[in-house]
Design brief:
disordered N terminus, 6 helices, disordered C terminus
Length: 159
């Protein structure tokens, strides 16, 4: 669908929109999220992965109307998968910190490996990625969660 030239009142667009939103709702109801694989086709044959990817691309290009964005937001649309994954890992780090009182998670664990990667990127001032502005937000978000992205002496578990 060419979102730059469509008429939202066109019955074909309206039907396509309803199908996409209904499929997204069903997926979210079943899986609890809208982190839909790009190649996902629902049981009815609807290519939901393509629909979601198209909506993300249209929004990124500034071609998605506000009402479409609002409807998808109401379903819990994940507009930037990389940013969502980073925030989920940061929340996991905060949970680890609350539980253990430190961030000296072993590098052999998923959270420990992620923290080590973030510390490495922070030392190189490379926390900003092309898909999000994590670097500019990292300190504020991390501090708000009680997490500090700094070097950790694993033996003493002190930042």
């Amino acid at each position: 669908m060419d979102l730059a030239s469509f008429d939202p009142r066109d019955p074909a667009v309206s039907r396509s929109r309803r199908l996409g939103l209904a499929a997204a709702q069903s997926y979210r109801d079943e899986h609890g999220h809208l982190d839909v694989p790009a190649d996902y086709t629902d049981p009815t044959g609807y290519k939901l992965g393509t629909f979601i990817t198209t909506m993300r691309d249209a929004r990124r290009a500034g071609r998605l109307e506000a009402d479409w964005t609002a409807e998808l937001d109401a379903l819990g649309m994940i507009w930037d998968k990389h940013d969502a994954a980073w925030r989920a890992r940061l929340a996991a780090a905060a949970d680890y910190h609350r539980t253990h009182g430190h961030l000296a998670a072993p590098a052999t664990t998923p959270i420990g490996a992620w923290l080590a990667e973030q510390r490495h990127l922070a030392t190189k001032n490379e926390l900003v990625t092309s898909s999000c502005t994590v670097g500019r937000e990292a300190s504020r978000m991390a501090a708000g969660l009680g997490v500090h992205l700094c070097r950790v002496d694993v033996r003493s578990a002190v930042c």
